[in-house]
Amino acid sequence: MNLCNINHGFNYELEKLCRIFMPYEKINILNEIKPDEVYAVCRLERESKEARAELFAYGKEYTCGSRFEGDGDKDAELCLASCLYRCFSKATGYTAEWGLLTGVRPVKLYSRMCREVGKEETDRYFKERLFVSEDKINLCYSTMEPEENIIAKSRPQSFSLYVSVPFCPSRCSYCSFVSHSVDKADKLIEPYCELLCKEIAETARIAKENKLKLETVYIGGGTPTALSAEQLRKVMSAIAENFDLSGILEYTVEAGRPDATDKDKLIAIKEGGATRISVNPQTMNNSVLEAIGRKHTAEQTVETFKLARSLGFDNINMDLIAGLPTDTLDGFKRTIDEILELDPESVTVHSLSIKKASGISASGAFPDAEVGKTASDMVRYAKDTLEGSGILPYYMYRQSKTVGNLENVGYAKRGAECLYNVYIMDETHTILACGASAVTKLREPDGPFIDRIYNFKYPYEYISRFDELIERKKGITEFYRQYKHTK
Fold first, then answer.
1. Where in the chain is the domain with CATH 3.80.30.20?
2. Which residues are CB-contacts of 363 (< 8 A; sequence separation ≥ 6)?
3. pLDDT on residue 279
4. CB under 8 Å to 128, separation ≥6 — which residues?
5. How far apart are CA 92 and CA 419, in angstroms?
6. What is the pLDDT of residue 174?
7. Hey, what CATH class is 157-474 in?
8. From CA 478, how far away is CA 471, in angstroms rounded?
9. 445 contacts 157 by C-beta, under 8 angstroms
10. For 15, how many CA atoms within 13 A lie in the half-sphere containing its CB?
């Protein structure tokens, strides 16, 4: 698709808007008109304060024009985006429930506006200017308070620890994370664990040096239980021996896939200090599991969940995905109903996001429209059913290239919310990260500034360039030297 922008430079936001309707297409941004099978011309006339969008798609033309008030770029950009959005809606017959919004954290915008202009004016702006549906406005409102309560627990010196285990039993078709199947990366796992323990120790030393206080721990991946029980003990012992865990608020381990989790591993996780785990089926439909490359059954999910309960885990999350290939609305409803029978403390409902690095591909005219409508019905059923069972929304974020331009929502019984999920998505405080592909996010105490330190992406790089990685960790101390109250 060609996006032809005339007399303005609003490239980023208009490209993101096009991806709501054409998430898998390459979008070429031009400052001249160049026809293609699908192309849009977005014109701006600042003197007359006129915005106009023209969409040419598969032999048909759609146009929309409007005038904007004010002289700033914000008003002009919003007006032009509104015109282009209306053109796409006419062409596809599809109205995105998040309207023009393309950002990762809509609740952050909603919360800020509520503080500044009040709820009534915020709701009006979201509905009339951004075209957000009433359901999504209500979701923002119901998520805002629990998020704010969790954020309030953090202090200027607070931080969370993230530990990456980038290995899986097999790679799912929708996955875009840096993860390696165990059969292909088996020889890397042991040396990786050895070095990961060293990085954990060095990270703890730096945290103490800067007088930081650990609030939450999260071991994710990949699939952490792709490690052996002995390797899990080794990594979790390194955390316990180097960090003060006596006052932490939460310790999560993604037990993840049932085909990688057994009794010995769950015992190792429990004895290692975890207070919360995830058992992640994604779906309870065996044919869908097969279609996405999962090597386990729904029955194994039930067995793993019940085993974890019998071992004393009293805070278990389950991850699901709406919009998976071959899944149907009725199939997704059965998944929700079966999950509720297990009575987990929390359920995270993701909407399928198709990235370039995943194995799924899509093509055709506006491929997201029909799938998006089904996925929207799925997430609506999940919300209504979970809330009816006392499992309430507490955090929400969005990704690009998501079917239906939808969202990911964490639901939990009150008191069982995952604090780390909120802290990482809100960028509430510093996240010190260890392992391949992990990213340390340094948050300015009492301020908005964020700096990042990147670890090497792949396990083989992590192993071969470990000394260089440790050298980068000095950037943490350099960052905190700027702030007196960490001394």
1. 157-474
2. 24
3. 93
4. none
5. 39
6. 54
7. alpha beta
8. 12
9. yes
10. 13
The radius of gyration of the chain from alpha carbons, rounded to an integer in Å, stands at 24
Cα separation, 124 vs 256, whole angstroms: 41
Pick the CATH number of 2-92 from 2.170.120, 3.60.60, 3.30.1490, 3.30.160: 3.30.160
**SS3 state at 173:** coil
Residue/partner pairs of 334-343 with CB below 8 Å, 24 or more apart: 334/284, 334/285, 335/281, 335/283, 335/284, 335/285, 336/381, 336/382, 336/385, 336/386, 337/385, 338/284, 338/298, 338/302, 339/281, 339/284, 340/385, 340/386, 340/389, 340/391, 342/302, 342/305, 342/306, 342/318
Give me the average pLDDT of each 10-residue run along the chain (487 residues): 96 92 88 95 95 94 94 93 96 89 93 97 97 97 97 96 89 53 77 98 98 97 93 98 96 91 97 96 94 89 97 97 94 98 98 62 47 89 97 94 89 98 96 97 93 96 97 96 65
Q: Please classify residue 136 by burial: count the beta carbons closer than 10 Å to its beta carbon, then call 0-12 exposed, 13-18 middle and 19+ buried.
A: buried
pTM for the full model?
0.91
**Range(s) of the chain covered by CATH 3.30.160:** 2-92
Can you give the length of the chain in residues? 487
Report whether 341 contacts 389 (CB < 8 A): no
Exposure class string for 427-441: b at 16+ Cβ within 10 A, else e: ebbbbbbbbbbbebb
**Helix or strand or coil: residue 48?**
coil
- Bridge partners for 251 per DSSP: 217
